[in-house]
Amino acid sequence: MKFYEMAPERRRARMQAEGSLSPQDAELLARSGRLDPAVADGLIENQIGQFALPLGVARGLVVNGEPRDVPMVTEESSVVAAASNGARIAALNGGVAAHAPAEHRVRAEVVFADVLDRDAALAILSSRRRDVFDVARRAKPSIVARGGGLRDVSVEPVRDEFLKIALDIDVQAAMGANIADTIAEAVAAAAGDWIGVRALTAILTNAVPGGQAVTAEIVLDPATVACRGIAGDEVAEGVARLSRLAEADVERAVTHNKGIMNGISAAVLATGNDTRAVEAGAHAFAARTGRYRPLAVWSMEEGRLVGRIAVPLQVGVVGGATTSLPAARAAQRIARYLPDNGSTPSVAAYQETLAALGLVQNLAALRALAGPGIQAGHMALQASNLAISAGARGGEIAAVAAALQSRSKDLETAKSVLGALRSDP
Length: 425
Ligand code: MEV
Prior knowledge:
Layout: H1 8-18, H2 23-30, H3 37-43, E1 55-63, E2 66-73, H4 78-92, E3 97-99, E4 105-113, H5 118-127, H6 129-139, H7 141-145, E5 149-158, E6 162-170, H8 177-195, E7 201-205, E8 214-220, H9 232-248, H10 250-270, H11 275-286, E9 296-301, E10 304-311, H12 321-324, H13 326-335, H14 348-370, H15 374-389, H16 395-404, H17 411-423
Antiparallel strand pairs: 1-2, 3-8, 4-6, 4-7, 5-6, 8-10, 9-10
Helix pairs in contact: 4-14, 6-8, 9-10, 9-14, 10-11, 10-14, 15-16, 15-17, 16-17
């Protein structure tokens, strides 16, 4: 039986047998969906309830030679199916080669406004470089002890009005917002004293320093992208052409990137990371040339379909909700984002998996578009959603969804199928 055809408990049992899911995590996932009330209340302000979403897994995404099961949380029916499809094609071609920057850096900005003598202030701040490093070290000794900390400082005017200190910080395996904000506020206080002006703001930027991005590449035999009777060569040419369209047409680029973020955001959410930080950084990066462009591009090279992605990924595997949410921790263990040999944790494996996932997610979407169109697959998956919206519960969901496969897939039909099922069970 195929994995997607199994009941959730059989899927967990299969993953346990394969060794990608521990008995403890299987147990945790079986009863997950509700946080401990104290955890939920402690996580946000004014908590009044909980909001459950399904956690799925894209299987066997081969990244740098290692197959990974990638947990994903999403409300969109087709996302995990598309990711799994893309991962399957990638595996047929030796997988995805991905590369994360050697250091996991974030940038914080301390900005002053209305500095009367900007040249004098610039000179003072530039001459205090060493002091800035001292302040940063004292503000966050724990990150220095973990091998990270402030790496670079630059001072620059922004228009006529502002003066900015940019702080590039190695945050090791953390997402880094808290580390960066703590250091930025300490530098803001000290630098404010040096130049006699109170800082306007001191905060992390969700843009990555120096345009540092995670990259991934895949080289495909066109035969492996054949789709529903359409020859692989034709589909591959179509994928490359759709990529050129995304470069030429911003409206298409937005949807192209939305498809990429379908996968990345779902895998970011599954680990308790900040989806908005990743989305903001990705879209800003897409527009870094002054024109919004596709994050992943595809071309035919020597008879092969080659896909490349570059995307900044501001994520972490220690700290915040990535540590405090039990299901997020389980998701990280399933995908083996943290080394299990006790060596220093790093975000690289996670970032590389996310970039690879975005690339295969894009491949699955473009392949469907270049092949039979998106609705064929989408609507088949949408059937369960329609069944649930029509009021189906328990076993009725699969029965109504199955009946809808050969009928018109709309809410009215789903309701009438459900009515017929209930009157003649
Ligand atoms: C749907 O959620 C995402 C797609 O529209 C992406 C794309 O068009 O490339 C299928």
